[in-house]
């Protein structure tokens, strides 16, 4: 069983942290589809320290999402430790994760995110400081390196372990690659063999079969799924089932997809107000609609709608097309 510190994770399937996506509305929905662990979107250490209102709202966790990992990012020890202590004492997160993978210049130029990958000693120092300051287990999510000439994944993961980190999640790409090319799973196997804490593999798991292949090829303890879960929490459910029973469940019907999209929308409205939630939901709706017959017809309308009723009407109209086909 995957265990992070004292936290028992009921299966190997982990929802990846995704900024602008993994808020409580989406996480809870994915959790209900069986994810063993859900990760929250990254939160700025400085935002926490300064008690920025938007940042504070990002710390909301519904009890039903647990176990949950909350990710912070930062480049300076003082603020990172302070933020970790705040999360430790004031949230119901189970795990505190540190971001060492974010490739965007806005983050790396503040010495945060993937910038750390160049310096295993800094990783050791920073992770040690956080581990000493909090009670909850501390983990790290990292990319395999900065660029092809600086792939320190093994040293970096070992630094996390020595510092008292309780697990590592590894995305098999460099910072320079961003999301291009193919994730390197060989490095996931190499890191797995070089540490004694759990290793969660990440990168390009697009199907339940990919997840099984990643476990078999790398020996990783858990599989982290990001983009394949966008608009598709069934990916999580189908992967859990496939890993546990070898059975591949059917893909959802359009009606099921639209119903879950509406549930997700309503949770987002409860979290933020309707206007903001509907605008944020447009991108999710496009993901839920991927591969649905007739989606081109409503895509533009979805990108312009401003109310729940409008959006729900469009989603239902797609489900009705399917129902007519079935009845016809
Ligand atoms: C929209 C989006 C937002 C992301 N935000 C974060 C983040 O906040 N923290 C993080 O560690 N990784 C973030 N990532 C990276 C993912 O967690 C994951 O490592 C990456 O997408 C590769 O996994 P996949 O191939 O399963 O998508 C993000 C990825 C996407 C697509």
First-residue to last-residue Cα separation = 48 Å
Overall average residue pLDDT? 96
- What is the β-strand count? 11
Structural class: alpha/beta
Major sheet characteristics:
8 strands, parallel, barrel
- The H-and-E topology, N to C, reads as EEEHEEHHEHEHHEHEHEHEHHHHH
Please count the helical segments. Answer: 14
Radius of gyration (Å): 20 Å
Strand order of the largest sheet: 3-4-6-7-8-9-10-11
The unreliable regions are: none
- Described by the principal axes of the CA atoms, the overall outline is globular
Main attributes of the structure:
about 325 residues, 11 strands, alpha/beta
Give a description of the structure.
This protein is an alpha/beta fold and 328 residues long. It is built from 14 helices and 11 strands. The strands form 2 sheets. It has an 8-stranded parallel barrel, surrounded by 7 helices. A two-stranded antiparallel sheet has the order 1-2. Helix 8 (186-194) links the parallel strand 9 and strand 10. Helix 12 (274-288) runs antiparallel to helix 13. The chain starts with a strand and ends with a helix. It binds flavin mononucleotide (FMN).
């Amino acid at each position: 069983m995957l265990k992070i510190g004292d936290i028992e994770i009921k299966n190997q399937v982990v929802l990846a942290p995704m900024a602008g996506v993994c808020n409580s509305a989406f996480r809870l929905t994915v959790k209900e589809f069986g994810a063993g662990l859900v990760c929250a979107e990254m939160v700025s250490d400085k935002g926490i320290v300064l008690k920025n209102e938007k940042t504070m709202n990002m710390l909301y966790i519904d009890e039903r999402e647990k176990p949950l990992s909350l990710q912070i990012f930062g480049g300076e020890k003082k603020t990172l430790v302070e933020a970790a202590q705040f999360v430790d004492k004031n949230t119901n997160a189970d795990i505190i994760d540190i971001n060492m993978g974010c490739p965007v210049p806005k983050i790396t130029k503040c010495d945060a995110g993937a910038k750390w990958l160049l310096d295993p000693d800094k990783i050791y120092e920073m992770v040690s400081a956080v581990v000493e300051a909090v009670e909850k287990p501390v983990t790290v999510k990292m990319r395999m390196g900065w660029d092809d000439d600086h792939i320190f994944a093994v040293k970096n993961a070992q630094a996390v372990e020595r510092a008292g980190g309780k697990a590592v999640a590894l995305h098999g790409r460099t910072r320079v690659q961003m999301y291009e090319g193919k994730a390197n799973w060989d490095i996931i196997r190499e890191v797995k063999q070089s540490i004694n804490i759990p290793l969660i593999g990440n990168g390009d798991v697009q199907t339940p079969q990919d997840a099984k292949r990643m476990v078999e090829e790398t020996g990783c303890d858990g599989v982290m799924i990001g983009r394949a879960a966008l608009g598709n929490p069934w990916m999580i459910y189908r992967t859990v089932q496939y890993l546990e029973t070898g059975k591949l469940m059917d893909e959802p019907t359009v009606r099921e997809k639209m119903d879950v999209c509406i549930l997700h929308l309503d949770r987002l409205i409860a979290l933020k107000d309707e206007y903001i939630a509907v605008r944020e939901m447009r991108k999710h709706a496009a993901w839920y609609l991927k591969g649905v017959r007739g989606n081109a017809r409503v895509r533009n309308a979805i990108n312009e709608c401003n109310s729940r009723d409008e959006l729900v009407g469009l989603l239902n109209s797609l489900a009705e097309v399917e129902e007519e086909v079935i009845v016809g």
